[in-house]
Structure formats: C-alpha cells, structure tokens
C-alpha cells in the first residue's frame, strides 16, 4: 500500500471512529445495528474505494478492528479477516448514484415509525419545517418527500432499487421498519443530514399523532 493510501485510510478510519462515538452516545446503534462509511481517494462510478464498519460489531465500543476498506463492488481491498457490513451493497449503490463522500445508516424508533406510517404513500412527507434547510433547501415552506424502500431480507434486491429511488435534493432513503441511510459530500455533511432526518422524522410522527 502506498504511503498516501495508508494516510488516507488512517484518516478515514479516525473520522469513522469519531462519528461512531458521537452517534453511539445518542443511542443510535441499538443491538449492533447501523453502519457507517467514508469514501477514500478519487471517485469514478466504475472505480472507487471506501472505508466501512465491519459487520456485527457493537458500534458503541471502539476496537482496533472496527473498519476495513472495500471497493466499488463491496469487496475488501486488502487481506483481512473482517467482514464488511452486511449492507455494504447499499452503500455501493448510493456512492455510484450520488458521488457522495460519506454515508451513515442508523436504526431509530422514530425513523421506523415514520416509515411505517407512510409506507403506502411510498415516501415520508415533510413540509415547512425549518430544519429542511440543513439539506441546503432554502425556499419558504419547502416540501420534501423522503423515499421509502421495502426491507427485503436479500440485500442485493434492495440495492438494485436504490438508484431509481434517490430524489436529487433529498440526501437520504428509508428502508421500511429498518432505518435511514443519509449521505453528504463529506462526514460533516452526512452527519448534519442524518441529524436533520432524525429530527424531522420525530416531528412528523408526533405531528401526525397530535392531529388525530
Ligand atoms: C441487528 S442489526 C441487523 C443488521 C442491520 O440492519 C445493520 O444495520 C447492521 O448490520 P452490519 O452488518 O452493518 O453490522
Ligand atoms: Zn441496518
């Protein structure tokens, strides 16, 4: 491995560790759920590399074997005994579709409830809430729809739906009764977007109950 690549890898692992620690403190990785990735190096849709959490780990604990590098097909780039996240193929499709720099996935009660509440609509509507501006959408009373995909047990079946589901100005997709994938140009933006989605899902769910 070249020195440059080693440095980039170490930097990506350090960033993932920092984000993982912050999100774990919010209780957003219950029961080993969730996965995080950051792209490393240049991007071309047919060839790129990213650092991702290893599968099945307790994401509230930091160990020397929490992350590994994979290629655009989700295959480890270096010899390792670690297994990449079971949901790596979803990350691959999001990178290919958006060219983003980081993707964070969490399971929370509010994102699960919101996805079930609006499952038949196919998307979670959010209207006029200030935090929509976190997505760099500045119009007054903006309305967005967060796409919801079915939570098939077979991850490749979900992965093949990802590109068609993505709405350009909405940096996230929900899997039904599973969790949100939020992305951004870098880790800062992906974290900001993830936090905005979680706030908006809680708002939408509570507002639906209040209206009844
Ligand atoms: C007990 S969580 C079920 C799998 C999942 O949805 C998830 O986010 C974690 O999977 P990983 O392989 O990334 O640990
Ligand atoms: Zn998951």
From TrEMBL:
GO function term, MF aspect, one: methylthioribulose 1-phosphate dehydratase activity
Annotated keywords: Amino-acid biosynthesis, Lyase, Metal-binding, Methionine biosynthesis, Zinc
Binding, Zn(2+): 105, 107
Class in the EC hierarchy, top level: lyase
UniProt-listed Pfam families: Aldolase_II
InterPro entries per the UniProt record, alphabetical: Aldolase_II/adducin_N, Aldolase_II/adducin_N_sf, MethylthioRu-1-P_deHdtase_MtnB
Cofactor note: Binds 1 zinc ion per subunit.
Enzyme Commission number: 4.2.1.109
Biological pathway: Amino-acid biosynthesis; L-methionine biosynthesis via salvage pathway; L-methionine from S-methyl-5-thio-alpha-D-ribose 1-phosphate: step 2/6
Catalytic activity reported: 5-(methylsulfanyl)-D-ribulose 1-phosphate = 5-methylsulfanyl-2,3-dioxopentyl phosphate + H2O
Family: Belongs to the aldolase class II family. MtnB subfamily.
NCBIfam families: salvage_mtnB (TIGR03328)
PANTHER family: METHYLTHIORIBULOSE-1-PHOSPHATE DEHYDRATASE
Protein name in UniProt: Methylthioribulose-1-phosphate dehydratase
The gene coding this protein: mtnB
